[in-house]
Amino acid sequence: MGSAPTSAPQIQHHVAGDHHDEHHDEGNFLTKYVFSTDHKMIAKQFLISGIAWAFIGATLSTLFRIQLGWPDAQLTWLEPLLGRWVEGGKLNPEFYLALVTMHGTIMVFFVLTAGLSGTFSNFLIPLQIGARDMASGFMNMLSFWFFFLAGVVMFVSLFLETGPAAAGWTIYPPLSALPQAIPGSGAGQTLWLVSMALFIVSQLLGGVNYITTVINLRTAGMSMAKLPLTIWSFFLTAILGLLSFPVLFSAALLLIFDRSFGTSFFLSDIYIGGEALNHVGGSPILFQHLFWFLGHPEVYIVIMPAMGIVSEVMATNARKPIFGYRAMIGSLIGISLLSFVVWAHHMFVTGMNPFLGSVFMFLTLIIAVPSAVKTFNWLATLWRGNIRFTTAMLFAIGFVSLFVSGGLTGIILGNAALDIQMHNTYFVVAHFHLVMGSSAFFGMFAGVYHWFPKMFGRMMDEKLGYVHFWLTILAAYLVFLPMHYVGIAGFPRRYYAYTAYETFNQFADLNTFISIAAIFAFFAQFVFLFNFVYSIFRGRRATENPWNSNTLEWTTPVVPGHGNWPGAIPAVYRWPYDYSKPGAEQDFIPQHIPYSQTVSSNLPYEREME
Questions:
Q1: What three-state secondary structure class fits 97?
Q2: Is 345 within a domain?
Q3: Which residues pair with 91 in a beta bridge?
Q4: CATH number at residue 420
């Protein structure tokens, strides 16, 4: 059940961290809150920025759901907000495409990548492995500020006269490669590319830091076999990002060449207004290969941190050891490896060789195996556990529910013959919003509710948390389950209006229902926002270890200072999931407790470890 027998650590603190034991000068406001090199403050910066971007992205989705739910309605009441993008009481069709593009970009990159991984990797890696800080505090600060600059550039593009990028969040050529194609292909697309370049630099700086910290700065006794599953997930996520984001950077760079310098990497035989353009020899399919080589690992860059968070929250609140610790690590490694060889299942309709399509179909179905291992292990952890239904635990269980619901439809879309029929329908939208979007958000919420006391020294209100959970999971299923139905019927995604198609008019009432549920989901998040902000200032004060957890972050002061531990860093003797161990005086034994202090609960091999 525990980790393999290893010799006990012989020292009580992290020697490499000794020089940090002295008092850290907090400095002035700028160095403490703005240009901080403290990993905990940088985590809060990522979190608050991510929350802000989440509400911006959700607002954009609400606007286009209004259009889809009531395509014939007069929207003059939106003119004070959208100005000239509402013409004659109707939403401008090109602006609709821009709304869809910016919503996808913001949610995938700025919220679920930077907001989730940036927050919890920064906050938990040093605290859970027993380090004073990240390997490089300065690089860590730069990673946030490159992200912040990327956000500023993306936000500015929303206010351009010609509108923001409108080629979809996947920015396929030729719309993204020809500045004259549509208004959104001009300055808005240029700013999109600049923003993404800055964003990728941010992710690479952060990823190098996370990997280096985990490898080099673990405290005495903290072997890789004793790392919490959170750290394993953040570590492997950083490796995924480090290997895949440069490919998107290269694709964006070549796209800039096509747009600005007359090259033809992604363009060939293009006509606009009957006039042939001077582009020959390029291939838009090449761009798809480059994009999805990042795009599919990106799915796991988003979901794996949430998996680690859920594993930690679930074990803590089930008061049981996580089931199959090594299998969980093996499944994370398996997901990481397989995620690099399945990208072309997004491209079954591009005319690829059917044999090649069958190879990618086989690999896609294989990747379901490690995901299923994790799911069964979570369910086994819950089985007969002494479950505490905290808000974090509810969101962790909700994550598993959404992950299973969305993952099952992934098996359908992984089949090339079925995917060709479902491609670019609402079935695909429903699938990835459940398995990646909603479930990742649930993992993020679980993490915020669970580690809020360590972040801010106060507790979030549990009753408001319950309201937030039930409203959100109800809304998620009410939005995305009906989308599967209309998707099977062939309802296409990214259509501005379906009223011209008699076939799709029969789904008008269902589309209205989906839009009402989406608006409901949006307003439900204000319960969380109020709880979050109010609790920072007025929440009940937290104790040092409010959840009776085993991991090292709960051995620090209630609100750790810069350097985390005021004295020596605790050494580690055991794995992080010694919950409800037979013979133990309490139902948890923290990692830093030596086996000599738990004689009554030691297993035979543990008696020989000291």
A1: helix
A2: yes
A3: 86
A4: 1.20.210.10
